[in-house]
Write a structure and sequence with these properties.
- Chain B: It comes from Agromyces binzhouensis.
- Chain B: GO terms for molecular function: ATP binding; ATP hydrolysis activity.
- The structure holds 2 protein chains of 2 kinds.
- Chain A is mainly α.
- Chain A contains 11 helices and no strands.
- Chain A has helices spanning 5-22, 25-45, 57-87, 89-94, 102-128, 137-164, 168-173, 175-180, 196-204, 206-219, 226-252.
- Chain A starts with a helix and ends with a helix.
- The mean pLDDT of chain A is 89.
- A 6-stranded mixed sheet of chain B has the order 6-7-8-3-9-10, with helices on both faces.
- In chain B, strand 4 and strand 5 form a beta hairpin.
- In chain B, helix 3 packs across helix 4 and helix 3 packs parallel to helix 5.
- Classes of the chains: A mainly alpha, B alpha/beta.
- The structure holds adenosine-5'-triphosphate and magnesium ion.
- The site of magnesium ion has 4 residues of chain B, from helix 1.
């Protein structure tokens, strides 16, 4: 049965990608909120924010906006998984001789594709609004790698939510705190402008290291130790969320 | 009638021994025993909440039993779940189709997941067989309840599994569609497939089943052929001397009249007045 993991995952990924292609509004919706935030921050608040650097504000904030895009995008992953569980198609898959984990991987890979498309749309709009980067090809790959890891980490959290939710709203509620996390980080204002305890939280939560690393990569500057902190967070969150998700899945699937 | 068959004539396709299952404090199944012969149609009757779906889910490896053992085609449902899944197909109580996909895509999806060659042709054949060819390229969300059910059953036939579970396959279907499903089920059994179906419609069991079992309060209280079950009631009641008891009467006498709140099985001999 394990020999079919890849082909089963491919078939199931194609299935849920078809869902997205047939309701592209989920991708548009995912991209709209970050774009509106970007407009607000750049054209309304941005002028009053002192980032303490010479780069334009959109360059400063784009990494945080991209994380918000992904954090809101994974809510749809939880939603789609929840609908499968409700609709009975999940039970059909579970009673068939297919590789068990491929049912989840199909959703996870779909989440990755959908979020990268949303991110691409947001980056496109940012370019129109004046975002400029001196990033080398290598730096671009590093940025993409970080965003892929971030998407996977949050997607496994979304899988936990989708598997354990009792209602549709419950399935996506987990994403709200994730969406707000970048606001209490270095994403929009420097953390040293915040009052003591808040600044301490902002300095030590995962988003700050991820944002700082991405910002440095976009600016073509050395990333320093931040990248290791960021990678440790990303891999750690992903491993823990994956472990929990698989445990819930196995319980649910037996 | 045809006296008790010798026990070991052929290994039963489905064998259930002492299966128990509780949810929280509800003891749903309290020791279910049954055997289903290869190539036969077996109907499981029971009121709402009797545990029919629970039993079907255990047999199709979706749920684990708390106690007891069950085999399907000789494979243990707990220990050899993978082999069981290769031997069965489940049509659950609620149609399990992908609403976003078309009928054809739903069928091809299952064919691909069963690693069959030429999923497109398999889909077309089944669409034709279930009178869905015209609707084949429409999303399943636009299907009527009956069409959805037909698609659901068609999806379960892909790969010709030797054992098929149908959980209330005709609930919500119009008489015409029910008869079509019945014909399909009969054709399956004629082709050697073992069918275990649950139903609330007693006439469905009368029409289709080689053997019928009544699940009540967690156990199989009676099982046998239709004729055997009918013999449990005196053939001629005072008011209805000319009429054989219908299965419905047998059922209600055994499980108690639901109007009186699921009394214990009334003994045929002290059948209440009317
Ligand atoms: N996952 C569950 N959690 C808690 N209770 C459950 C669960 N599944 C079933 N039950 C309970 O177990 C009992 C049997 O349910 P089941 O669905 O097996 O009955 P059924 O015979 O299929 O009924 P119906 O004819 O209405 O489909 C019911 O009381 C039901 O509430
Ligand atoms: Mg049921």
């Amino acid at each position: 049965m394990t020999t079919h993991v890849l082909s089963d995952t491919r078939v199931l990924t194609a299935r849920s990608l078809t869902h997205i292609v047939r309701s592209p509004d989920t991708i548009i919706t995912t991209a709209v909120t970050p774009i509106v935030l970007m407009l607000l921050f750049v054209y309304v608040f941005g002028g009053a924010i002192d980032t303490g650097s010479t780069e334009s504000y959109i360059d400063y904030m784009l990494p945080g906006i991209l994380l918000i895009t992904i954090a809101s995008g994974v809510a749809y992953t939880a939603y789609r998984l929840f609908l499968d569980l409700q609709g009975g198609i999940f039970q059909r898959f579970q009673s068939m001789p297919i590789a068990r984990s491929s049912v989840l991987w199909g959703h996870v890979l779909t989440s990755l594709v959908a979020n990268l498309v949303s991110v691409a749309i947001v980056v496109g709009v940012a370019f129109v609004m004046g975002f400029r980067t001196g990033a080398s090809v290598g730096a671009w790959f590093a940025v993409i790698g970080i965003l892929v890891l971030f998407t996977l980490a949050l997607t496994w959290i979304a899988v936990i939510a989708g598997l354990s939710a009792k209602t549709v709203d419950g399935a996506s509620a987990f994403s709200y705190p994730l969406i707000f996390l970048p606001f209490v980080s270095s994403a929009f204002v420097p953390t040293d402008s915040m009052p003591g305890p808040v600044a301490w939280f902002a300095e030590n939560q995962p988003v700050t290291s991820i944002v700082d690393t991405t910002r440095a990569l976009f600016a073509g500057e050395p990333v320093g130790a931040d990248i290791w902190v960021a990678l440790a967070w990303l891999v750690g969150i992903m491993a823990v969320a994956f472990g929990f998700a698989m445990r819930i899945y196995r319980r649910r699937a037996s | 009638m045809t006296a008790a068959a010798p026990v070991a004539a052929a290994a039963p396709a489905i064998r259930v021994r002492g299966i128990e299952k509780s949810f929280a404090d509800v003891h749903v199944l309290r020791g279910v025993d049954l055997d289903v012969t290869q190539g036969s149609i077996f109907a499981l009757l029971g009121s709402n909440g009797a545990g029919k779906t629970t039993l079907v889910n255990i047999l199709s490896t979706l749920l684990k039993a708390d106690a007891g053992a069950a085999t399907v085609q000789g494979f243990d449902v707990a220990a050899d779940a993978g082999d069981v899944r290769r031997s069965i197909s489940l049509t659950g109580q609620f149609a399990a189709v992908d609403e976003v996909l078309t009928g054809r895509e739903n069928l091809a999806l299952v064919a691909r997941l069963r690693h069959l060659k030429d999923p497109g042709r398999i889909a077309d054949d089944l669409l034709a067989r279930f009178s869905l060819s015209e609707a084949g390229d429409r999303r399943a969300a636009t299907y009527s309840g009956g069409m959805r059910r037909r698609l659901d059953i068609a999806m379960s036939l892909i790969g010709d599994p030797p054992v098929i579970f149908l959980d209330e396959p005709t609930t919500g279907l119009d008489p015409q569609a029910r008869i079509e499903v019945w014909q399909t089920v009969k054709a399956l059994a004629d082709g050697g497939t073992t069918v275990l179906l649950t139903t609330q419609y007693l006439d469905e069991a009368e029409q289709l089943a080689d053997r019928i079992a009544i699940l009540h309060e967690g156990v199989i209280i009676r099982s046998g052929t239709l004729a055997e079950l009918k013999r449990l009631l005196p053939a001629a009641k005072v008011e209805y001397v000319e009429k054989q008891p219908r299965l419905e009467e047998v059922f209600l006498a055994l499980v108690g009249d639901p109007a009186r709140g699921g009394a214990t099985a009334a003994e045929p001999t002290r059948k209440e007045s009317r």
